[in-house]
From TrEMBL:
It comes from Candidatus Magnetobacterium bavaricum. PANTHER family: DNA EXCISION REPAIR PROTEIN ERCC-6-RELATED, SNF2/RAD54 FAMILY MEMBER. Keywords: ATP-binding, Helicase, Hydrolase, Metal-binding, Nucleotide-binding, Zinc, Zinc-finger. GO terms for molecular function: ATP binding; DNA translocase activity; helicase activity; hydrolase activity; zinc ion binding. It comes from the Bacteria. Residues 744-901 form the Helicase ATP-binding domain. InterPro entries: DUF3670, Helicase_ATP-bd, Helicase_C-like, P-loop_NTPase, SNF2-like_sf, SNF2/RAD54-like_C, SNF2_N, SNF2_RAD54_helicase_repair. Residues 1030-1183 form the Helicase C-terminal domain. It holds the Pfam family SNF2-rel_dom. Residues 111-147 form the SWIM-type domain. Gene3D superfamilies: P-loop containing nucleotide triphosphate hydrolases (3.40.50.300), Tandem AAA-ATPase domain (3.40.50.10810). This is SWF/SNF family helicase. Signal peptide: none annotated.
Amino acid sequence: MAKRATFGNTWWGKAWVTAMEKIDYNTNRLPRGRRYANNGSVREIKISEGNVKAKVKGSRPSPYKIDIELPKFTEKQIKEIEGIIHDNPALCSMLSIGQLPEGILSLLDSHKIHLFPSSWNDVQSNCSCPDWANPCKHLAAVYYIIANEIDKNPFIVFNLRGMPTERLISAAGIHDEQTHDHWDRYKERFVPFASTDMKDHYCSISEIPELTFKSLDIGLMFLLLQDNPLFYKDGNLKEILNGIYKTVVSKVDTYFLIEDEDEYVMRNNDIYLSYNSNDVLQAFITPPDNLPSEFNNNTTIQKVPSVDEKKFSINYKEHNGCTIPFDKLVGYLANHPDPSECSASLKFLKYTVALSMALIRAAAFVPEIFAYSKDEFIVRYVPLINDEYIRVAIDYQAHLMPINVAYFQKEKTLLTRQGAYDILCWTITTLIHSLLAEGHRYTLDNLLDTFTKGGIFKVTTFQQSNTAKSITDWLENLSIRKKDISPLIRIEFKEDDEFEVNVDIHNKALPSSPIIPLSQIFGKQKQLYSQPINVVRTDILKQLVIASMHMPELKGILESKGLRPSIVTLQDMANIIGKVRTVFDILGINIVIPKGLRDLAKPRLSLKASVKSGSTAVSYISLNEIINYQWELSIGDTKISQKEFLRLVKTSKGIVKYKDEYLMLDPEEVKAIMEKLNSPIPTMSSMQTLHSVLTGEINGTLFDVDDTIKRIIEDLTKPSDISLPSGLNASLRPYQLTGFRWLYTNAVRRLGSCLADDMGLGKTIQVITLILKLKEEKRLSLPVVIICPTTLIGNWLKEFNRFAPTLNIGIYYGTERALSVKDKDAVITTYGIVRRDIKKFSNKTWSCVVIDEAQNIKNNSAAQTKAIKTLKPDICIAMSGTPVENRLTELWSIMDFTNKGYLGSMEQFKKTYADPIERYRNSRQIEKLRLSTAPFVLRRLKSDKSIIKDLPDKVVFDEYCYLTKEQAAIYQRVVDNAIKTIEETEGINRKGLIFKLITSLKQICNHPAHYSKGGSNNSILSGKSEKTIDLLKKIRDLKEKVLIFTQYNEMGKLLQSMILEEMKLETLFFHGTLSRTKRDLMVDEFQLGGKYGIMIVSLKAGGTGLNLTSATNVIHYDLWWNPAVEAQATDRTYRIGQDKNVIVHRLITLGTFEEKIDDMIKAKKELSDLTVVTGEKWITELSNRELKELFSPPKPV
């Protein structure tokens, strides 16, 4: 329920009421009108040319008509008023923010000009009611309502006396900023398609700026606002808005987080924003793939602005997609991390959301009126640019905006790059509304809804007509930050701890422009900084009058028009450097502090760690047992005892001189230090100690260590210079030797490791070398268990047999598996098997657990991850080319496996690292995470210069796959039937049958659907296709291109549809039936474009005249067993001009004729010369016994 109104809440409103009550002293007619004014009887008031017309509800059906007119000022009086205002800067400054200084009445009285009526004779009024009294209760009600409107807009008093607002503001030399028709001016940022500057489409993008901004003090910010603003009667809007700020700032870091694995992550979707006439934003997403189900409910075909690269123009083009409200899109983007690669529009909008959340987190936003017309407005939230980091981030957001991302559909126009700021504003506003939606209690009225829900406020009464201007004036203190031209407060040493304060003017947008004395805005020049002088004067006066409320010393400078400085003391400077400078940061007003006071020393508390006398550390496990901890205080670089510090804080406050330097003793900081000094020193595990030593911090407090601890940590983490195991059947590249030594050093110190080398750098051989070394040194008393995806079992077994044949390896897999570890050095199994058989694994003791493709435990809450982490070996090793795919918590989960507790709990990790880094790109936390994980995570990239020189031009990997159950059954049947027929056939017919068998078995190994010419093309039905999808995902994460070679067009089509269905990626298919023109176009699209990262190539079609050097990866899906043909295909990727190493993956099905033929070719290299000519012909010459041996089905795993 609305409060009973009080009339005349400002001094000028009260002056109106007082004047009316004074002239009513004898008649006592006004009190009768209060009740009518309070109960809403006044239905309408209009003021035009100083005359008041109103309608008041009475006892009759029709309202009574009211006419009121005050005597008008003469032209001479108006000119005198203009002179008084013009000559008084303080008065001008108050007028510039919609207020009247009390001194104006005495100034006017001195010129015998009376602003308020002094008798009823000065008021000509009439009411159509039958009451003869003047004023009647109806007239009295109107007088009280006018009082409240005068509260909101004091210019009304002058208007009633015939002096227009325009002449008042002209006399004050101020610029009238209209609060309506924002939408019309906003639409000017849209330009026709044909007028778009296409150069904007190709502008370069700088490095992504950090989104960690200094948080504003909300309490100080709201000191700038007046309590109980007059336009809102249902409470103190200042307190309500303060609560809104505190709510959204506290909730923004947690409200949008989701804990589940990301089922949907948009990557290659393009997003378009369409506006309508009411500025309602809709998002159109195309194609409608990989989206949450609720998005796909609105699938449609829509015309969107598309860039024609060839014609260098923009035109509408139809796309299939889905339309969703802008707030739904913002909610999705707030919940999902940046994908490793994505469309330009998605990157822009994702960054816009991240920037918006960073601004909300720092409370760096302010509400502003956005008016659609004179009588309709909403409140939106805009950035408060209170430091250079925010300005840089907003500039980056504008440069990131694709030229065709936002458009006004009805008028076929595009939002220019300047409109990126408006998209940012709507995003901030949308997020704030979302944060307030849950449990928000301020939903009682239309005006508050504009602040909390974005509702349109429609003016329907006279009392509401000044609402937009009143809100704008009230918020002015928060909005002046946006002014480029602003005061510069200059403070200089004077003498005896006194300082002189002067005011200059500078242009923050053009730092190279000259600094100008304040006095110049009162001069006769017409322009300043290329702007009209009245605009500059208005901005400066507004800022100074607001600033003077917090720094009263500025009032005298303003009154003297900048000609007379003010003097302040050292204790005044404590307030100026502390509270005032913080407030001025919010206002965007700079203060130049004397050099000696710019970098004030502050007391600093740190936790000092030192080694106990006579102690040494043999491992990190005993680290915590040999360390003493104590609090240590310092001021600048000078250590100070607790006793001396206590004496200092008891005798001093603010700015004090301490040993020839100025020191700031902030009461809150001193209180925090004292609380820590009086608290017990925190207890730490060895892992926490190690983490604190590496990062130099513990729970936000500095952590210092002595030189002995530094040496101990260096010894713990420095790789040992050890020799390779004697039984290793391989030579390691230099970076692989480094990796092996690093793994060994951590292993013997019982520290876990995450080997995170790029795909293709040989992680497996480094781990095998470690296992072999530990075995030879008799450090492997118990077996190692290697857990990997099913597609890698064969690779591990082959590489063990090839590089470490002396090790005894077991495989735990298949339907008839038995977990026997006797005499085994290592057991290979899969994630799924461990999850299902965790009790068996937990009952065994393991020396080491190795997890390959460690991203399989990225979800800490998954049953698979929990199972893996129940194993308690001496050493844990993780291997992953992509330790972080989507979220940093994936790295935490891996580190929680390798070195449990080192990075704290997941909640601690999110608060300390994940949220600051993922949301805000906090460079300090990025560096801390790098320092803390450096000893335990080793990542080398193929692009590293030190790695490139160690790699050959072409690195070949044999990727071994198993037949699936479906494949094995078909393989067995085909071989049995074929061999029986071959045995009964001779001559050329026999050779034909063998060729047919080879083709059939190749097709079976490729995919059951390839052989049967029908059925499902799901990748899990084939070991090769499953392996291919795994490889493609890794290659995509590396943002590299890949060629897939197959001999068969049918298999190429299967792969193309499979990749589209399972990875949502379009691929190119280069085959022999393409015309020359289509071939050339396809090659150009792959080589030069960014859309296609995968090309499938028919081996015959790709055999000649093809140059595809943009690919750095090759997959040979099926083999010819002809090294020359295979090499010719691979060479498509590193012809002359290739400057990158090429990784080649040869897919071979274990236990089948593919593996046996490949082994024969490798064992008898002389055959390579023969196969250049004969291809597979030699196989047809084999005897029946040899054929049976070659084609015999694989044994079950």
